[in-house]
Amino acid sequence: MEETISLRELMETLRKRMQFILMITLTAVIVSGGVSFFLLTPVYQSSTQLLVNQSKSDQPAYNIGEIQTNLQLINTYNVIMKSPAILERVISDLDLDITATQLNEKLTVASEKDSQVINLSVQDTDPKKAAAIANKTAEVFQEEIVKIMNVNNVSVLAKAEVGEDTSPIKPKPLLNIAIAMVVGLMAGVGIAFLLEFLDNTIKTEQEVEKLLGLPVLGSITRIKDQEEKAKSRAQQRRSRLRGERVGS
Q: Burial, 81: exposed, middle or buried (Cβ in 10 Å; 0-12, 13-18, 19+)?
């Protein structure tokens, strides 16, 4: 026999398991907030921009062939900027206690499509250190590219600076808490429906009628309830007898 679940039954399941769902959601929010505020270390980002263009040329200012050449070189420059030849000198000049591989993981080099501008971003737990690494990397690259490629077509557009109210790019506690709330709510609802699906016990007369397709003619009360009622009546009788004896 095919079973169907009505909207009323779904709402009844949610109502019955509401405390469980709220407990799961609240736990997820508390854990996410605790991890975001107290366990994760804030990470700051500082960026600098470099322009790939001939600084000195007797040709017109807007030479299409020269621009196309510079655009083709940008991908090569992106790789060279993160190469050990550049990073090891940055580590040496700034006296960093990290390897070239670790420094490489802090750097992000990207350029917009059909743009001669290269964006160099550095992430670190210290905002001043991130800015120093970004500026030093741009400086070293500008000097070394002349020796490596025998060209002098890189200039710094904007240096990395540390503002007074610098905020970390991660973690984002409020966003993490919001995500945890949604995930916790979905998990709570899912587990609630799973528990309801796995619970095959019969609790009400309506469930008996639905399962067997027959009307319920009678029901048996719980013996424990009858015993409690009997004890209550006996206590009432004893109270009356004491009252009558005192009155006499």
A: buried
52, with CB counted inside 10 A (0-12, 13-18, 19+), is buried
Number of Cβ atoms within 10 Å of the Cβ of 169: 12
* Dihedral angle of Cα 233, 237, 238, 244, to the nearest 10 degrees: 160
Which residue ranges make up each domain of the chain? 7-39+171-202, 44-158, 206-247
C-alpha 44: how far from chain center: 17
pLDDT in tens, 101-125: 999 999 999 987 778 889 999 999 9
Question: Taking Cα atoms as reference points, which of 133, 145, 16 lies closest to residue 85?
Answer: 145
Q: What is the arithmetic mean of pLDDT over 77-106? A: 94
Among candidates 114, 111, 112, 113, which has minimal Cα distance to 77? 111
Measured from the Cβ of residue 242, the count of other Cβ atoms closer than 10 Å reads 10
What is the assigned CATH class of domain 44-158?
alpha beta
Tens-place pLDDT, residues 191-215 = 999 988 887 776 666 766 666 666 7
49 contacts 157 by C-beta, under 8 angstroms: yes
